[in-house]
Write a structure and sequence with these properties.
Elements lengths: L34 H10 L12 H4 L10 E6 L8 H8 L1 H15 L3 E7 L3 H14 L3 E6 L8 H9 L14 E5 H12 L6 E8 L5 E6 L4 H7 L7 E6 L6 E2 L13 E6 L17 H5 L6 H9 L3 H6 L10 H5 L6 H57 L7 H21 L12 H28 L1
Bound molecules: iron/sulfur cluster (2 copies).
Length: about 450
C-alpha cells in the first residue's frame, strides 16, 4: 500500500474484462431525502476527503447537535508545492465543484460558501467566479497568498474567517467546515449522477518525461501512472507520495493508487539532495518562528527524544499538522517532524495497550464476579434445602441424632448467609492510602457489576 509504514494490506484484485462498461447509476433525489438517509447514501458511495486526510465525507456533513455550520469553506489552495491537481480541477470542472458545494451548504445549513484560492492560480479563480455567475450562486471566491501551508484546513479557515480553530478541537466548534474542492466535485458526481468515488485527479511530476495531471481510477498501479507520464528518467532516486514537505517514500511501484494519493513525485539527487547530518539543537528558536500552529517544536523535540511523551503532549504535540516547516528552517538539520511522528505513534500504541489491558481487567473481574455469584447461588440452594430439612427435624426432640442433624443444618444456613453478605478484603490495616484507594475502586466496580447483573436478571425475569 502507498502508506508511510510501507506495510502490505488486504486488497481486492479486480480482473478487468477490458470492455470498460459501467452499471447504470441512479442520481439521488437528495433535496427530498432525509438528511441521515442522504449521509448514509454518501457513505455507501465511498466519498472521502480528497485533500489527503481521506476523512469520511458523510461524517463531516453531519452538522451535529447545533444542526447548523454557518460557514462552508472550499479549500482550493494546494496543500504543498509541486501539486497541481486541484488547480486543474478548478479550471476544468468549476461548475461541478459548485454544484457539490450547494449540496454541502444545504446539508450543513450553512449561510455562506467561501472558496479560498492561492494567488498563483488566477485561471482557477476566474473559472470558479464565472461558474458561480452562470449558476447564480452567491459564492465568495477569496484569494489568499501562496504561502505554505495555507492549504492546511485550520490555516485556511483562519485566513478566510479570522477565527482560530480550537486546540485539539474541530473547526466545526468554531462554526466552520472545510472541504477540499475535489471532495465537492465528487459529491456532485455522487448526487447528480449517482456515481461512487471511482477516480481522482493525481499530479505526476518530478524526474519524469512529461509531468502532468491524470484523472485516474482508484486502484490503478502507480507504476502504470508513471509510465503514462513518459516514465522516470535516468538518475531517478526514488518516489514520493504526496508533496515534498509531507510526502513519504513509495517502497513499491506496484502499489495501487488510493483516495489519499494526490501526487507522485519521482526524485533525483538534484531535486532532493541527501539531508546533511543532524547537529545539536542550538535553541535558536527558528523552528518556533516558522511553525504555523504556533507550537514550540524544539521543546517537543527534546521531550520526544527523551521519550517523555507526556511532556511532549503537554506542549500540544497533537496540534502539530506535520507540515515540516520547522525541519525545513532548522539550521541544525534536525528531522523534527520524524520525532513528532514517532512520539505520536508511541502515544497511540500506549493508548491501545492501555485500552486492551483495561478490557482484559474488566473481563477478569466479571469472570471473578460470575464465579462468586454461582457460588452464592449454590449456597442459597443448599440453605433452602437445609431449611426444608430443618423443618422436618422434630423440634424439642430429645433424640441426640436429630439434635446433631439440626446443628449441622443450622451451621449450613449460617454459612450460606455469610456467603450472601459478600466477601470483604481482610488485613487492610496499615496499607498505603494508594492501595486502600485501589481496593475501594475494585469494590466499587464489583458493586457496579453486581448491580448490572441484577438488572440483567430482572430484565430476563
Ligand atoms: S530550529 Fe533547530 S536548532 Fe533552532 S531551536 Fe529549533 S530545533 Fe533547535
Ligand atoms: S511540523 Fe513543525 S512547523 Fe509544522 S506544525 Fe508541526 S511543529 Fe509546527
Amino acid at each position: 500500500m502507498p502508506h508511510p509504514s510501507g506495510l502490505p494490506d488486504l486488497c481486492i484484485v479486480i480482473e478487468s474484462d477490458g470492455e470498460d462498461r459501467a452499471t447504470e447509476f441512479q442520481p439521488l433525489d437528495w433535496r427530498n431525502l432525509d438528511p441521515s438517509a442522504l449521509r448514509n447514501r454518501i457513505r455507501d458511495l465511498g466519498l472521502a476527503g480528497l485533500g489527503g486526510a481521506v476523512f469520511p465525507t458523510y461524517i463531516k456533513l453531519n452538522p451535529g447537535a447545533t444542526r447548523k455550520v454557518p460557514t462552508l469553506i472550499l479549500n482550493g489552495a494546494e496543500c504543498e508545492p509541486w501539486i497541481t491537481c486541484d488547480d486543474r480541477l478548478m479550471r476544468e470542472r468549476a461548475e461541478g465543484i459548485l454544484r457539490g458545494a450547494v449540496a454541502m451548504q444545504a446539508i450543513l445549513h450553512a449561510d455562506a460558501i467561501i472558496v479560498g484560492i492561492e494567488d498563483n492560480k488566477p485561471e482557477a479563480a476566474a473559472a470558479l467566479q464565472a461558474a458561480a455567475k452562470q449558476l447564480g450562486l452567491p459564492v465568495e471566491v477569496t484569494i489568499v497568498p501562496t504561502l505554505y501551508p495555507s492549504g492546511g484546513g485550520k490555516q485556511l479557515a483562519y485566513l478566510l474567517t479570522g477565527k482560530e480553530m480550537p486546540a485539539g478541537g474541530r473547526s466545526t466548534d468554531a462554526g466552520v467546515q472545510v472541504f477540499n474542492v475535489a471532495t465537492a466535485y465528487s459529491l456532485h458526481r455522487a448526487i447528480d449522477l449517482g456515481e461512487p468515488m471511482l477516480s481522482r485527479v493525481v499530479t505526476v511530476t518530478g524526474h519524469v518525461s512529461e509531468p502532468q495531471n491524470f484523472e485516474v481510477r482508484i486502484g490503478t498501479p502507480i507504476e502504470d501512472l508513471i509510465r503514462q507520464a513518459g516514465g522516470e528518467l535516468a538518475g531517478a532516486t526514488g518516489k514520493l507520495i504526496g508533496g515534498p514537505m509531507m510526502g513519504f517514500e513509495l517502497r513499491d511501484d506496484t502499489a495501487p493508487l488510493t483516495k489519499a494519493v494526490n501526487c507522485v513525485i519521482v526524485k533525483n539527487r538534484k531535486l532532493f539532495p541527501a539531508a546533511p547530518p543532524a547537529l545539536a539543537c542550538i535553541r535558536c528558536g527558528e523552528c518556533a518562528r516558522a511553525c504555523p500552529a504556533l507550537l514550540q517544536p524544539f521543546e517537543m523535540y527534546w521531550y520526544a527524544k527523551a521519550k517523555d511523551f507526556g511532556k511532549a503532549q503537554s506542549y500540544r504535540l497533537f496540534d502539530c499538522i506535520e507540515c515540516g516547516c520547522c525541519s525545513y528552517v532548522c539550521p541544525s538539520h534536525i528531522p523534527l517532524v520524524d520525532f513528532f511522528r514517532f512520539a505520536k505513534g508511541e502515544i497511540w500504541a500506549r493508548e491501545r495497550e492501555k485500552e486492551a489491558s483495561e478490557q482484559a481487567r474488566q473481563r477478569h473481574e466479571f469472570h471473578q464476579f460470575r464465579l462468586e455469584r454461582e457460588k452464592q447461588e449454590k449456597a442459597d440452594k443448599l440453605a433452602a434445602k437445609a431449611v426444608d430439612r430443618l423443618k422436618t427435624v422434630e423440634t424439642g426432640s430429645s433424640d441426640p441424632e436429630a439434635e446433631r442433624k439440626k446443628a449441622i443444618l443450622q451451621a449450613a444456613i449460617e454459612r450460606a448467609q455469610k456467603a450472601k453478605e459478600g466477601i470483604t478484603p481482610k488485613n487492610v490495616d496499615g496499607l498505603t492510602p494508594q492501595i486502600q484507594q485501589e481496593i475501594a475502586d475494585i469494590e466499587a466496580r464489583r458493586a457496579q457489576l453486581r448491580e448490572t447483573a441484577h438488572a440483567k436478571d430482572e430484565d430476563s425475569a
